[in-house]
Amino acid sequence: MNGAVRAVVRMGIYVGAKVYFIHEGYQGMVDGGDYIKEATWESVSSVLQVVIVMLKDPAMTHLQWPN
After folding, report:
1. Which of 18, 25, 33, 45 has the highest CB neighbour count under 10 A?
2. CA 65 from centre of chain
3. How far apart are alpha carbons 63 and 2 in whole angstroms?
């Protein structure tokens, strides 16, 4: 999924579209403000690396991933 998000963001930026991240799902979209941020090429440059590091970190084994 993270690779797909990164690809969509990068393609959107490449074709000149403005791409946004909405944090906290639908509620973040309703509340607006700081929950909506414009995506940049740099903001997705390490998406895969960050997730891989988190999954390999023993301190992260307590996390419950949503279904």
Report:
1. 45
2. 15
3. 18
Q: Are 16 and 32 in contact (CB under 8 A)?
A: no
pTM: predicted TM-score of the whole model, two decimal places = 0.59
Residue 2, C-beta contacts closer than 8 angstroms, at least 6 positions apart: 47, 48, 51
> Which residues in the chain belong to E strands, given as ranges?
20-22, 36-38
In Å, what is the CA distance from 50 to each residue of 22, 25, 33, 41?
Answer: 19, 21, 25, 15
